Amino acid sequence: STLAWHLEDTVFTRRTEVARGVFAYLFNGAGRSVAVLSSAPQHDPYAIPSHPDVLALDLFGNPLAAGSQFFGTLVYLSTENRPDLLQKLLVKSAP
User: Fold this and answer.
1) Distance CA 23, CA 25 (A)
2) pTM tops 0.70, yes or no
3) pLDDT digit string (tens) for 5-55?
4) CATH for 2-92 (2.60.40, 1.10.150, 3.20.20, 3.40.50)
5) What is the DSSP secondary-structure string of 9-27?
6) How many helices (H) and strands (E) does the chain have?
7) Are 79 and 13 in contact (CB under 8 A)?
């Protein structure tokens, strides 16, 4: 249900590899942007972006601490900013 809640009324805009084997699927809609982090079975270390305007939730909708390590399970990032700004935050978190 976390996926449906985040992606309702959004449109897929792009997929970006933010670290080797870590992918961000970016969605935009109704004044908000969402990124869904996913990974290949083997992936490089990646820190979940930290920004006051970005809400980070785990697969079940629980909040994640800023700068937490990504361990390969789905992570949802949402903000009221544009997808290109969210993508810049994602790339900055790559080692």
Assistant:
1) 7
2) yes
3) 788 889 999 999 999 999 999 999 988 899 999 999 999 999 998 888 889
4) 2.60.40
5) T-EEEEEEEEETTEEEEEE
6) 2, 5
7) no
